[in-house]
Amino acid sequence: MSYDLWYWPNIQGRGEFVRLVLEGAGIPYRDRAREEGAEALMQDMAARRGFGPFAPPYLVDGDFASAQVAHILAWLTDRHGLGAGSLETDLQLIQLQLTVTDLVAEAHNVHHPVAADKYYHEQKAEALRAATSFRSARMPKYLDHFEAALKVHEGPFVLGAKWSPIDTSLFQLIEGLTYAFPRRMAALKPRYPLLHDVHDAVAQIDGIAVYLSSDRRIPFNEDGIFRHYPELDAE
Amino acid sequence: MSYDLWYWPNIQGRGEFVRLVLEGAGIPYRDRAREEGAEALMQDMAARRGFGPFAPPYLVDGDFASAQVAHILAWLTDRHGLGAGSLETDLQLIQLQLTVTDLVAEAHNVHHPVAADKYYHEQKAEALRAATSFRSARMPKYLDHFEAALKVHEGPFVLGAKWSPIDTSLFQLIEGLTYAFPRRMAALKPRYPLLHDVHDAVAQIDGIAVYLSSDRRIPFNEDGIFRHYPELDAE
């Protein structure tokens, strides 16, 4: 079995949360739009009407396509035994993943508070205000929540010794927030030792380590979710 | 079995998507914060550390709490046989529900583009710009997507003759968007006959009809997700 992943080919973006799980678990996949381009992605998505995806990323197995990051990861968890194997705990992991989704949306909203289809420079004044609130109120609120979840077991992962998709997602959050807000993340770092532990532990998972040093890992850039605009960062 | 629903007591908000399913399916529940107040909600949530909710609404059964609207509804669907009974279709319904979640977040962002913890009047200028883009680009994009999903079966519901939680959610979207943007929704109405059909069909489900005429249905107001600020509306 090999999956087709469809996502914008030039950014990590939301697709990266799916890529990390596939790479970490050694699940074969083709990153279709990186092979065939964004136009092929648009055409493929347009052909999937009805119950098809609203937006990339989506993951395809045969005739079935699954969209929405947390939903894709729950599907992979179920199919490939990546979770706790207990219904209640697996439901709680999905819930945590959906909270990652919310933080990702808010991180994007910081540089696009007015309209996703307008450029950053068209909404920079609004973004400056949004960033202040995001850094002071929202980042600690979310990071407190994830740090508390990491206290349930002994670590380094959310479930303890076994990694699951929420861990690769927390890794990516720390990576992305540190890229976008290096000064703020440096100031916050002492408050979140467990988040930094899980970040470091994920980076050492065999499949992840290989992936991160490959050219499949697209560098962060100012077209993705996590963008480094120095004027939006502060301690 | 009776569930405890915890949500802010003075708004429909995100909790309404859960209330509608419980009411429509005749599932017993207590709306705890409406009985005991917002302070009780804050205390209850603070006591649920670790894998607990990041934010209301959450639904409790015994020792287990589930948060995130789409996740709560998937859990209820599974436990109470509210879905299609086919894994692939039920996954597609969850995916649609997660897209409802995205639209709800964007609808809130229209009146709070800068910061959720600041008042509307502190970000009105930004909201005016955000509303223009939301009305012209985002509303039709989402409504097109849901209208297409309603074409998969014969209607009036997404699965055909049987309603499921995505239908009560589409009902609530139409209700909320019509409350918040009456001029825009009137202009768009001819493009979305199936969405208006499902709205009307949901309103006639026995449990929903009783609920809507009860005082359990909180009127829309300017503290919730869908707010009517006339300056943000236009054809």
Automatic annotation (TrEMBL), chains A, B:
SUPFAM superfamilies: GST C-terminal domain-like (SSF47616), Thioredoxin-like (SSF52833). Gene3D superfamilies: 1.20.1050.10, Glutaredoxin. CDD domains: GST_C_Sigma_like. It holds the Pfam family GST_C_3. Residues 86-232 form the GST C-terminal domain. It comes from the Bacteria. This is Glutathione S-transferase family protein. It comes from Croceibacterium selenioxidans.
